[in-house]
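[[Encoded backbone]]
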Amino acid sequence: MRGALATALLLILAALPAGAQSYRFSLEEAVAYGVQNSTAIRSKALALEAARQDLAGARAAMYPSLSAGLTYTHLYPQPEFSGFPAGATDPLGLTANLSQSIYTFGKLKGGVKLAEQAVTQARLDLEEETRQLVVLVKRAFFGYLLALEVQGINRETLDRKREALEVARLRYGAGQVSDYEVLRAESDLENYRATVIGSDNAVRIALLNVRGALGIQEEEFEFQLVGQLEPLAFSLDRKALLARALQRKYELASLRGSMDLLAAQAALNRSLALPSLVGFMAYSLDSGMDAEGKNDYFNAEAWDGRWTAGFSFSVPVSALFPWSKESAAVRKSALQLENMRQQYSSLESGVRIVVESGLLKIAGEEAKIASGRKSLNLAQRLYESADVQYRSGYISSTDLKDAQLGLNGAQLALAQAVFGYNQNVLDLLDAAGLDGEENQ
């Protein structure tokens, strides 16, 4: 589904005229485009295909090997001995050889096993690269939505301060307040412009981060992000999430693959000390000469053909001694495997702790969101009441400013809480080796 969506996006973008490329990305479309456009993912995909070809080569060693050859020999004139003709000067020879490993005591199977583990690791690398990019795009996307939300809140607050300045001028014109109230409202407005400028710049920076995450290099490529800063849907319970983390976490899965690879290498090292049985068959055909001692290529009776067949049984005797390099390799593999088991146990414990702490952080952010919504409701009501009272002359501009700041702070706090919740969800999914797509 993600690949089909990305392909459709690329076709649409390619159809746009040069210099006028513009598109609106939702979160799903941005993720799909980023995956399709990633050079790192394409590199991992090529590495996976190369590993598959290595596996095909390893399996080919289990099949018969057939070779054919043609030899041509030129003999320079030699002194003729009495009763021994010099023979043909340019004989030809044809050979065909067939060999098949009958039993290698695990050598060939060990090689295939190593190649299979390499394919598994390459596939795991590709999946992890894709997952990391999905999480990166989501982080950048939500960062942009937060910057956009903050920009909207600050601009809304700036508009309120403009309205407060107009009210102060009207009241000053009516003789209800001194010019001090007007100057204070005007100063408050100008001081807040810097905050708005900063939030505008933060939106541009966040958009650059999204551009980098999507791998967009063309400067003329214009795009917008469409979405609302809302909490991510998250429904995995603790037990299911922990089980997925232990199964899907890249470091754990990669270490399991390394242990399987090392076990296969150890089996291959042990098999190197075992015998090998190979069957072979060959046929050779050599040209002869006629009665005058000249080359006779076109007479079938002049050619001499021979069949040979047999078995080859070899035993690497030196590998049986405890001081041999084969024996040392077996002992080394056992030590490395035990070391990896210790690493796996420690890493597994760390993943459990990260998952548990991530769930606690998410629960805390959920409480902040609930509290922030209540605070925003109260701050909105307080500002509306203060605005009415200020226009009626019951409170000063200082009181109105406090209400404005309270509403602005409540809006920003809620936006930050939602953003923090989403970031903690992504952190937890990242710790579990997930990207959030499985949860949708």
In short: The chain has one domain: 2-11+22-72+88-431. The longest helix spans residues 325-392.
